[in-house]
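Input:
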Amino acid sequence: MKPWPNGARAILHVDMDAFYASVEIREQPELKGRPVIVGGPKDARGVVSAASYEARRYGVHSAMPLVRAARLCPQGVFLPVRMELYAQVSRAVFAIFKDYSPLVEPLSVDEAFLDLTGCERLFGGPVAAATQLRARIREEIQLTASVGVAPNKFVAKIASDLRKPDALVVAHPEGLEEFLAPLDVRRMWGVGPKGAAALTRMGMHTFRDLAQASDRALKKAFGSNGPRLRDLARGRDARAVVTARGPKSVGHETTFSQNLTDRAELRAVLIALVDKVAARLRSHGLKGRKVTLKARYEPFRTVSRQCTLAAPTWTTRPLLDAADALFTEEVAKNREPVRLLGISVAGFSSQESLFSAATPDDSAVDEAVDALRARFGVTAVRRGSVFNNRLRSSRENDPENQTDEAIGKPKEPL
Amino acid sequence: MRFQAQRARLAEVAALVGQAVSGKSTKKIFECLRIVAKDQELEISGTDLEVAIRYRIQDNIEVSEPGEVVVPAHLLANVLREIGDETVTMEHARQKLTLKTDGGLFELECEDPSQYPDIPEFPVAAALKVGSNDVRALVRKTVFAAGREAARFVLNGVRILASSDSVRFVATDGRRLATLSRPAMRDASVDGPPDAEVTAIVGVKGLQHFDRVAAETEGEMDLALADRFVSLRSAHAEVVVRVMEGTFPEVDQIIPDQCKGEAQIPVGVLASRLRQVRQFASVESQAIVMQFSSGELSLSAAGGDGRAEVRLGVDYEGDDLKIGFNPAFLLDSLKVVDSESIQFGFNNANAAARISDGSGFLYVIMPVLVD
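Output:
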């Protein structure tokens, strides 16, 4: 293997293979070799969070409704999402990343960019480092990861995906265009089925075609984004690895196993959601001022309502007031059955405010509640409105039993 | 109505009054100004119902027929600016205002003067005497801190507090606050109520007109806070501003009166160093970090495009402290201080800091939380 040129950027994209499913198989070795589908019971209304490679052979993939997955793969092992477990494993994986570079940009719980530029002496070059890193993940975590090594983020991400699972793919800086040239245009960022069809009609099938395309043709197909796509197709991407990028929003939503019509019951769910989101904001040290309520009615009509608070906050009370006002304005005024309810807070600012949105009393209540929950668990203290409702509503409708991904990471344009 | 006037002054006044009149309105009359010609005096006024301006011209006027007329403000101001004549004659007849110049004729369509909004008279009984320079300082050193799109609507205005011997302006957008106090005097010729403090909230636009009128006035002006209006008057001009409804937050409790650390910092050096470093602040945080240590202040910022750190000598003795700020908020205050150095007071990294310049100007700024 050619040595990495001195001074060239070296970016690793590390992607854990079928992460949630692989963690479940590690925890229950008897599942090895079976089609494992994480997301919930096969008759649940959620979507697939992860599918093992065995399950993928049946056409099951993440974000597919569980019901459809069950039709495609009736013999599949359907498991609920155990987010806390995956988060714990994720922390161990990221700890290994940190041994290789201080510049780690997480994309999700199981995926990250590492900038290894200038580390030739330390690990014997980026390729040797990637080999080591994969071996350590296998030995210490008992999981496999696919790694792409390239001079930039875009190509590294493509490389890691090229021979998944359990693969190391190197795109050497010399010969980058040759590496990319034969690839299918569908691997290009921003090219979905429609874009691919458009490209095919224009006679463009590979990265090579895209790299040689004229400005006019690209503008016609992709608008002002066209020239950028050509740069990417030629392997040009100057974006830096950005560490510790904070979340853009913190939210929580819950899909009901049965549609809810009772507005009082829905309001109780809303309160529990806000309670949870506020606690999470505090634990992340984030204060936000944009509150969004999301409601999905039957059949799949989704509406969201947003409002802006006077000052960013992480205190439950003002968030609850805002969420309740949105609820009153949107959900409470109609009678439609609701299948999903969610609340999220964005517009984070670390700029402190002269006038707090909360009274000192509100903050003291939150502090006390957080402390109790830290010691005795989340169910140690609850709002009365939620508790009363729990006597009547089914357990599945309790957001505390839901484990949806709560932190919205910004979508990477890859 | 018929009069002759000096063109240059008339053009100037029409332009100043025109600034209070909206350029586009659903009703044509709200795009107009009003001219009243009476015994050797012209009164020109305009309003957008939030701010009203009234000017009097007494010099070089010849009124041959008293009367009043309402004409499009911007059209009149533009015509008067473009014609180069020394004097101009205006005549109102049959719904038209005719401008006669040496070799020129302009006809402007008029509106019905009885439909023009009334502009409140100056409430003499409530007046205080304030120096025109003080009026300018009050405006200039506070309005910049007012909110622009604050969710609490009153924060888009400036609070005025007047007592028998002082006037104070307070403006805040919720993240920083600027306040200045200036001496004032109750007009001795007027029997007013005793020394009760009166207060009103007014919009920034009206105060900018205060500044313009004060800029062309020497000496004292009259300021009056009435129930629904705040008025400022010079010998020739008057600005009336509608009061904003609402409750302004009590600010005195958020101005720190005790500071654990205080540093004396040269204004020019601080401003230039801040401008150097702010380029590097990250888009998300928009923050620079100030780090105080004995005799030294370091300013630093880091973001996706790099990092910067600069140092400057300051007069400071005390514990080391690291505190983050939005550099734009710091620079805003440095632009309006008159002194060579500022007093910078702070308590800790998440409590309000205080900037003062020894002239009664006080600026309170909340930090940005940094790691």
